[in-house]
Known about the structure:
This protein is mainly beta and 170 residues long. Helix content is 9%, strand content 34%. Among the domains are: 48-84, no CATH class; 102-169, CATH 2.40.50.100. The chain is flat, with a radius of gyration of 31 Å. The protein starts with a helix and ends with a strand. Residues 38-46 have low confidence and may be disordered.
Amino acid sequence: MLIYALFHQVGINFLKNRGNPEAFEPAPGTETEAPPAPATAAAGGAASGDVESYRVSVNGTQYDVVVGPGDADISQITPVAAATIPSSAAPAPAAAPATAGTEIRAPLAGSIIDILVTVGQQVNDGDPLFIVEAMKMETEIRASTSGTVQSIAVKKGDAIAHDQHLMTIG
């Protein structure tokens, strides 16, 4: 009766068909799954009995991955030696900035309300650099080191994310 009171249509169907198990869907986990359709070459897969191999790049390191026949698990993962990677596939190392400095990163997400310094300005440890608004509260972002402002990566009114690069002090 509770089922009928809460779920009128379901309750009626239950009461009408409680002696007929074909009227209801099977309980979760008891149904039998249809075998997966074999992969076809047109779909980009290999025949179900073939071994497949892939070259995968994870965080700049490349691996050869071999997958067993059919739906078998991964059978082999081998790091690719740097000498075997073609030069066109290897990413070029990023050029280091001419003068490396200290990055100032956002300690919280919010919006830049004001920028209190300019490029080329000398700042001391603890000097205010930005005013950020987050959740209707204004927060000062201060210098963590002394030096000269080399670059500013944001402008007034920009929305910023936590740990986003804001400026470089050298």
